[in-house]
Amino acid sequence: DGGITQSPKYLFRKEGQNVTLSCEQNLNHDAMYWYRQDPGQGLRLIYYSQIVNDFQKGDIAEGYSVSREKKESFPLTVTSAQKNPTAFYLCASSILENYGYTFGSGTRLTVV
Amino acid sequence: RKEVEQDPGPFNVPEGATVAFNCTYSNSASQSFFWYRQDCRKEPKLLMSVYSSGNEDGRFTAQLNRASQYISLLIRDSKLSDSATYLCVVNIVQGGKLIFGQGTELSVKP
């Protein structure tokens, strides 16, 4: 079955540590996105990529980094520079910008 | 002003009720419109796209008014399983990304 897979489902990070969240899709979608959701709030765009080896900052890119070396994969690194990383992270993909997104099931990141 | 604004909610309704959600968007160049549903602690899932002529899918009806930059979602004969947060989503083609409203929570009670 085609879909988008995020891992891990839950992640705990120590202060000052970098962590990488995985996002893989086998839908042959060109565009991929990372969003962050805080409790009771909407989704905020971190980074997005419309083509391999190219990506753009979203509204809250500070403290995050991404890569898009393969069409199927768009990993997100939460660096130690992100001061408040505890949140629900959602990866999405789409075939074209005028179509809706398919979301992964998300990763819950907690700083301990 | 937020790019996409929704009714703040929450909406608490009895089973069988009709409930309407409203959403406004600020960019008149917006091209595509969607309603997503998000269950508690889950990812958003596409409920329906919204077309200029309005569209219906069973108990759900979506309307778009481009002149007023307004989108609505009507749910008839509410079920307990309709309890969720409903997200209004707009695409601005130039940015190539979807803009999400903050969501309206619906709770359907027996």
Structure description:
The complex is a heterodimer of chains A (112) and B (110). Chain A is mainly beta and 112 residues long. Helices cover 0% and strands 50% of the residues of chain A. In chain A, strands 2, 4, 5, 6, 9, 10 and 11 form a seven-stranded mixed sheet that branches. In chain A, strand 4 and strand 5 form a beta hairpin. The radius of gyration of chain A is 13 Å and the shape is globular. The mean pLDDT of chain A is 92. Chain B has strands at residues 4-6, 11-14, 19-25, 32-38, 44-50, 55-57, 60-65, 70-75, 84-92, 97-100, 104-109. Chain B is mainly beta. Chain B contains no helices and eleven strands. In chain B, the strands form two sheets. In chain B, strands 2, 4, 5, 9, 10 and 11 form a six-stranded mixed sheet that branches. Chain B has a five-stranded antiparallel sheet with strand order 1-3-8-7-6, with no helix packed on it. In chain B, a hairpin with a 5-residue loop joins strand 4 and strand 5 (44-50). Chain A binds chain B through residues 31, 33, 35, 41-43, 45, 48, 50, 58, 88, 90, 97-106, and chain B through 31-32, 34, 36, 41-46, 49, 87, 89, 91, 93, 96-98, 100-103.
